[in-house]
From TrEMBL:
InterPro entries for this protein: NAD(P)-bd_dom_sf, SDR_fam
Annotated organism of origin: Favolaschia claudopus
Superkingdom of the source species: Eukaryota
SUPFAM superfamilies tied to this protein: NAD(P)-binding Rossmann-fold domains
Protein name, as recorded: Short-chain dehydrogenase/reductase family protein
Length: 322
């Protein structure tokens, strides 16, 4: 079967339909699935074909709204909610234990959740909250679920882990490795830290791919610019007005190429299921295709990826084994 060429205008619906047989029978976990977000849209199209879609959120009320909306639109979908607070190691361990107790295997983990800024804030574990949500929480969660992912391997299937990053990783100098374990308020800048967090996503994906030795396929991606809940938060508007993404009144700038929600989730679904990516683990995707040339040097450096991995293992107190 010849596969279609995906592009900037491809929708998640189209990607899921293309790989319906690949999705069928799979169990998928997606973090950060609030309504009006690309995580929810990815969950929606995947749920049409998958055996099980696990959706997560730290707010039980919002998570229930997502669950109800998915089940209303797709009555036959098997959707399971999971409370997950990535800013707390104890909460991550609790959520991972719940998933590991499921009878079903786990084929795909999509690390989509994001904390898009605001004032400097430390987590219960003493870490900066944006980096906790983007790097430390997902690292621990992925590590604890790795055995379940690996158990889904077969002669014809290799489990995948997807990291939703952003072109914003280019807007800064990369991850400040010296400020991770003991973050300093005077070093904090909302937009700068968000850029670091998105850089960490790319470094994590490439290093996971390398260290797993082919046992896990890992990918990172830029979804595009979408007018989601995150962009509409007050603390993000000034940053986005400054770079021209939003108008001064907070509405999308028509000169900037915004995507629809469906187009925004398309690259996530591609990374999770496109069979053409099998031999390109560790790659960065943009508009549903591999675009490693668009990764900034600081986010493509293997030595930085190794250092970030080692520092993160120390911080979370866990070492990956494959």
């Amino acid at each position: 079967m010849s596969l279609p060429t995906f592009s900037v205008s491809t929708t998640a619906e189209e990607v899921a339909a293309t790989f319906a047989e690949e999705i069928r029978g799979k169990n998928v976990l997606i973090t950060g699935t609030s309504l009006n977000g690309i995580g929810y849209e990815a969950a929606r199209v995947i749920a049409k074909y998958a055996n099980l879609v696990i959706i997560t959120g730290y707010n039980a009320e919002r998570l229930k709204l997502s669950e109800e909306a998915l089940k209303k639109e797709i009555p036959g979908a098997n959707v399971r909610p999971l409370i997950l607070d990535l800013t707390s190691f104890a909460a991550v361990r609790k959520a991972a234990a719940e998933v590991n107790a499921y009878a079903e295997s786990l084929h795909v983990l999509i690390n989509n959740a994001v904390n898009s800024g605001g004032d400097f804030k430390l987590t219960v574990d003493g870490l900066e909250s944006q980096m906790a949500t983007a790097q430390f929480g997902p690292f621990l969660f992925t590590k604890l679920l790795a055995p379940k992912l690996l158990a889904s391997s077969s002669a014809t299937y290799t489990p995948r882990v997807v990291f939703v990053s952003s072109e914003v990783h280019m807007w800064g100098p990369g991850v400040d490795l010296d400020n991770l374990a003991h973050p300093k308020a005077e070093k904090y800048n909302s937009a700068g830290t968000y850029s670091q967090a998105k850089s960490a996503n790319i470094l994590f994906a490439s290093e996971l791919s390398r260290r797993s030795g082919g046992k896990i396929k890992a990918y990172s991606l830029h979804p595009g610019t979408i007018y989601t809940n995150g962009l509409q938060k007050e603390h993000n508007k000034a940053d986005l007005v400054n770079v021209g993404v939003l108008n001064p009144d907070g509405t999308p700038n028509s000169k900037f190429p915004f995507k629809t929600m469906g187009q925004g989730a398309a690259t996530t679904v591609t990374a999770a299921f496109d069979t053409r990516l099998e031999d390109q683990s560790g790659s960065f995707l943009w508009d549903c295709v591999v675009a490693n040339e668009k990764v900034a040097p600081h986010s493509a450096d293997p030595e930085t990826a190794k250092k970030l991995w080692d520092i993160t293992e120390e911080i979370v107190g866990e070492k990956f084994t494959f």
